[in-house]
Amino acid sequence: MTKHLNLVFFLALWCFSPLVSFAQSPIEIAQKIDELLVSETIVSQTNICDDETFLRRAFFDIVGQPPSLEDVLVYGLEPSVNKRSLLIEFLLTDKTYGANWSRYWRDVIMFRRTNDQSLLGVAALESYLTDALNNGVSWDRIAVDFITAKGDIREDGRAVFIAAQQGRPEETVSEISRIFLGIQIQCAQCHDHPTDRWKQEQFHELVAFFPRVALRPQQEPRSFVVTATDFVGRRRTANANNRFVGTLEHTMPNLVEPTQPGQVMTPKFFVSGQTLPAGTSDAVRRDSLARWITSPDNPWFAKAVTNRVWAELVGEGFYEPVDDIGPDRTPSAPKTMDYLATEFTLSGYDIKWLMQTIMSTQAYQRSSLDRRNYDQIPFQANTIQPLRSDQLFDSMMSVFEISDAGSEGTGQGPRRSQSPRNVFADVFGYDPNDPRGDVTVSIPQSLAMMNSTFINEQIQARQGTMLSRLLQEVQSDRAAVQELYLRVFSRRPNRKELNTSLAYIKQVANRGESFEDLLWALLNSAEFKTRR
After folding, report:
1. Which of 8, 95, 73 is nearest to 487 (CA)?
2. How far apart are CA 174 and CA 151, in angstroms?
3. Helices 96-110, 51-63: crossing angle, 10 deg rounding
4. I need a labelling partner for 97 at 20 to 30 A (CA). Which of 192, 277, 358, 381 fits?
């Protein structure tokens, strides 16, 4: 587990290495966003959260881990009025930022997979995304990499995107549209879209960019390779549905007369109407589609990721669910949405810029509340979010002061090593494409937290544990309770919490046992398992 940042140095570091430099700074654009949002949603009050809440929120949102005890203490003593902006910039330079968000995008891609064997490439997928995000690779470049990928999924994480859908053109373009455009055109696969303007022909014209792509198994070592072909041998028909080899062209099935041959489709991008001629090579097809999707002239590319990142940081998107937007949907605050997406495009699709801008808004920095009802005004508060499984696991590693007990084969699904991290992924993992209101606490989750052998070993006040060191170093029960709250919640206990804890310690009359119970209770609380 990566050691937390030392905030003592963040002011000096920021002065020498500014993260971004544009005509308008992210802070200036954030102010404009707040003005637009107030005019559109009639936000009742500012209600900015306190520094302890902001610190923990920013740490989770950027690096996926809670602040250390030292971070909490140093940040609380920092007098600068700009310390929130400086903290955001500093955290975005930490390498753990890329690891945290690579796991988010990993789940976006892999939760909707149709091929469990693609999990063989998850480590490579995370590695590619971590490096790309940390190095400031633009979002359009990342999208192009996924759309045009070839290669062994164990060696090149970009190929995992296509492998997750078994190399099947229909499923692959559905995910491309859903993730990079926010448009669920797959609903038009068998008939015209029931609620949007998209026609069945438009879906299959999109599929026609991918018929030559295939997924081939490899035995030594066991893996899969994304390939493409521009040649058809004599023993195969041009339109045979062989996903180990691929086909030259895509045929839209004839659903009226299934026994009759369907229509051979030419590649056409449904958003802009741009078309390629029949017989175009695979490389030109996929390169062209990637360029058209990521073009500044296509507003849905910027809107899709802008809406996603806003939803992750503020707690609800302009569009809900985040992967179902498009011209036939109305966002909560259309002027604000359009302005932010346009500025994101002008930034060169800079994801760090987008995060810095959103986190500089009052909308992000408001106090947190539970998810609102649909008839209530949006964006009145930052919505409480359940921690993703990796974030929850890293939080426990931080509290226990131990390193990651198992990082290989991360992600959800079968055929993975059963490390503590992966056990938690199986129980606490959720699809980040789903509305957060649909993510609920389950009985298996409660049992995992209460009965886990791994957790119960770490909360004991025995030699070598964090709790043992704390009780040895801090003789005052009051001070020990306060430090335990800081470690678990990144805040001090209020008066009621402190008095209740001290009364329980006195009642049990066994210091080690009472603090074990207290730590267990804090870890099993809703506050520990959420980002507020």
Report:
1. 73
2. 21
3. 60
4. 381
Cis peptide before 493 (omega within 30 of 0): no
Q: In sequence order, what are the residues at sequence separation of 6 or more whose Cβ sits closer than 8 angstroms to the Cβ of residue 491?
A: 52, 53, 56, 72, 485
Tokens at 347, concatenated? 């930034």
Q: Which regions of 219-360 does DSSP assign to beta strands (E)?
A: 223-228, 250-252, 263-265
Q: Measuring CA to CA, which residue among 50, 74, 55 is closest to residue 65?
A: 55
- pTM greater than 0.70 (yes/no): yes
How far is residue 185's CA from residue 196's CA, in Å, rounded to a whole number?
9
Please tell me the distance from the alpha carbon of residue 461 to that of residue 464, in angstroms, as a whole number.
8
Structure tokens, 252: 């839209």
Cα torsion for 164, 168, 174, 177, to the nearest 10°? 80
Domain boundary assignment for the chain: 119-294, 389-531
| Residue at 311: amino acid letter | A
Output the six-digit token pair for 397: 């590693």
CA 276 to chain centre: 34
Amino acid sitting at position 345: T
Whether the CB-CB separation of 106 and 125 falls below 8 Å is answered with yes
Average pLDDT per block of 10 residues along the chain, 532 residues long: 50 50 79 94 80 98 96 93 96 97 98 95 98 98 98 98 97 98 92 89 97 93 94 56 79 81 94 96 98 98 98 96 94 96 97 98 95 88 95 95 62 55 89 89 88 90 96 97 97 97 97 97 96 95
- Residue pair 151/163 in contact (Cβ under 8 Å)? The answer is no
Question: Phi and psi of 482, rounded to 5°?
Answer: -60, -40
Helices (H), 232-277: none
